[in-house]
Amino acid sequence: MKDYKILGKSVARIDTPLKATGDALFTADIKLPRMLVGKVLHSPHAHAIIKNIDISKAEKLPGVRAVVTREDSFDVRWGVFKYTQDHQLIAVDKVRFVGEEVAAVAAEDEETAIKALDLIEVEYEILPAVFEADEAMADGAPLIHEDHPNNVNIHVNIDVGDVEKGFADSDYVREDRFSSSGETYGMLEPYTVIADYKAAGALEIFVPTASPHTKAKALSNLLKIPLNKVIVRRSNVGGALGGRSDIFPLDFITATLSRKAKRPVKASYTREESMTCTRQVHDMIVDVKTGVSKTGEILAQDIKVIMGGGGYSSTGPIAASVPFLVWEETYRLPNVRLNSYRVYTNKPIRGMYRCHGRAFLGGLGMQLDMIAHELGIDPVAIRLKNALQAGEFQATGSKIFGCGLSEAIKNAAEKSKWAKKRGKMAPGKGIGMGANGMMCGFPMGIRGGSSAIIKFNEDGYPTILTGVVDNGQGNYHAMVQICAEVLGLNIPDIHLVAADTEVTTLDMGAYSQAAVFVGGNAVKNAAEDARQQIFEIAAKILDCNADELAIEEGKIFRKNDKNSAIGLHKVIRKGLIDNTPVIGRGSYMPEVSRTREWVSNPKGQQAGTFSFGANVVEVDVDMDTGEVSVTKATGFHDCGFPINLKAVEGQYEGSIASGGLGSSLMEEHLWKNGRMLNPDFLEYKMPLAVDMPEISANVVITDDPKGPFGAKEAGLFGSMNSFQAIGNAVFDATGVWVKEFPITPDKVLKALAEKEKTVK
Amino acid sequence: MSTKKFEVRLNINGELEKIAVSANETLREVLRERLELTGTKAACDDGSCGACTVLINGRPARSCLTLAVEAEGEKITTIEGLAQDNQLHPVQQAFVDHHAIQCGFCSPGMILTGLAAIREQQAELSRNEIREAISGNQCRCTGYAKIVDAIQAASKMKSEE
Ligand code: FES
Ligand code: FES
Fold this sequence. Notes:
heterodimer, A: Aldehyde Oxidoreductase, domain 3, Aldehyde Oxidoreductase, domain 4, 6-stranded mixed beta sheet, about 25% strand, B: about 160 residues, DNA polymerase, domain 1, 5 helices
């Protein structure tokens, strides 16, 4: 590992002392003068026409300051893409799921607001509803959006090579179906919005968001105010896991309440509202047919996916593509066909979770093990045989740059003592592997890049301005570390202003694993630009050329003469007086295809670079109860270069819990007629400390040629491939494949009973 | 809802607060809304997450399940009461040093729960004892590994005192 002064060390993060003392402010902790309380009225029906809304009684209740309904929508529909604009952020003609936002109230206190909701009279005409994706696709199913036949929201079709020929050439072909129900994001912070619509026409909004600039754009469209008047303020984000990137009705509603009441409004969702009315994870059915050679080389794959999307598009095209993209980032697929359907249903809206594609990636990774088993090949060997290498191209055309996939697979096998354990453990105990690649950044057009500014005060200390967001991963600290390394400063010397649309420049936020890769490159470029300006000014003082200078510990000196040192503050002051103030400016746009489009043209470079990881888990299966516990997890992660090693480890450890064993073994939403039955933490079980195994988190260093100081995405592989690792370990322990996630005790027992029958 | 108010005296972080509360007002509401001690977090409505944990007479308690009137006269410690003279408490410092804090929403509750376990320990806590001790506290970010590391380090320090 390269030796840097600041980078690559496990230093304590700048943001955590305030979080340890309780001083860090989250949105719900903020109070503005004269702030009102907002409350939302939700639809009790899964599918219904709104015939009439009567707010006259609510408006008359003393203490009520504003009521918002469809009358206040500007008839604008939001969608992440032009072709997915299907969501009016307050229901207008009809409601499409239980919980959809129909009206809202701002009042002096919560009690009054709740009372006012009771006084709003909504007349519905109930329509037939459909809840499961496959049923929604069937002919004759009720249409949720009239202009979408068979309720197909998005269909992504990818067809590479000659799939039929690939099957004809195969020595072994098998078909399997995998499925998964949807889970919750479960970030601890309930969703809260504070909006303050100023008389001058500017909107200030505090919100836990992973993408403030995207939020500003949506609000600008929806409220018809220019983008520079939408001020999205960073507050600390109490976990995101993919679920804080989108635009939510509560954003629009709170802003509208504030505009009408002419006062700031805070609206906090309860746990139940947070779980039902923000996002859940897609449920999924995956049919996959795979053909391989005798030696286990994948020759053809035909994959059909049906995803339950809920009432609206959300990030639809991305959601329908990502599981496949992650798969093609991992293995060589010469002939492959994907038909992925995201289908509207009368359930709440689904988005992308930390481990999006549970049935897909779990299923395909388990099928690889099934094939290995049939052909008598070791699961590690079949992965190594098909694993992509640096310099190769993925099926849809993305080039791989740095790639430590094979090394990660080998190291994870070795460290977990795979060869001694696989197939050799006591009954009920097993070991399994998963592996995957991960895109750093999505093709997001103008939103795919980042820029940063570094300004200096006359005392020589800099402030970074960046649109990067930290949801807890340590992104802020990484930005400061990168800046400190380039400028020869120490971490406490640097101040950071991030994710505030009033001052920071366009950035997609903590989305698509891009923060350190894209935002980090921008900050590095800005710091290098500042350093160059500093050297040019200092060269005049030191009477030499700029390229003869170095900077360390806040001093600039000639490389060959440390005694020549002058303080950075002197250089900054000279810059000011000479009218050449030092302002570092840097940007980064990942080199992705400009013509690639999620649905219409899924071809060409899709991300600036890719990270990789392999994960080995050991399980203990109680053969009487069917209960599976994970006893050990060993991960190796090609994160390029770990800017902050402990932060990288922490991402992997976290993804073994949420997404990882949580999603594999215990988590799922339960439903009845479109109504969520477990919208709280009592009924919806998430992993607790006692559920966790010992975790061995390790890195593979590849110094990615595209990443800032070689760095790229960190840690997501733990959740992205835990399903296959755990599913495969369950097979090793029991001899049965459970193809429906989560792998709950009843499913294990059922599979064991079926196996017993066939043996007899 | 009854509008009758009860005067309660709460000893919070060593300071006596006299405050008029309704019978149904929780300690969490009083701390967060009335006293603006927002370090105590609210993440659920049914006592299932542990984010609102405070210490009542040294023992972890869920401030969302505790009525303010029940806390009358008790000694309450919130996360704001730990650091002294701008110095983090050793358990807070261990959380920072061991990267046990990611988003930080669970951290106040975790730190107080960890601290209570350490105060009661007979000997250095094992990793499994720590896991048991914090299993009423949810964390969605860390996978608990570094939280266990931090509490273990602080426990070791305490046992060597
Ligand atoms: S807020 Fe008290 S336990 Fe969740
Ligand atoms: S650090 Fe985010 S919930 Fe624990």
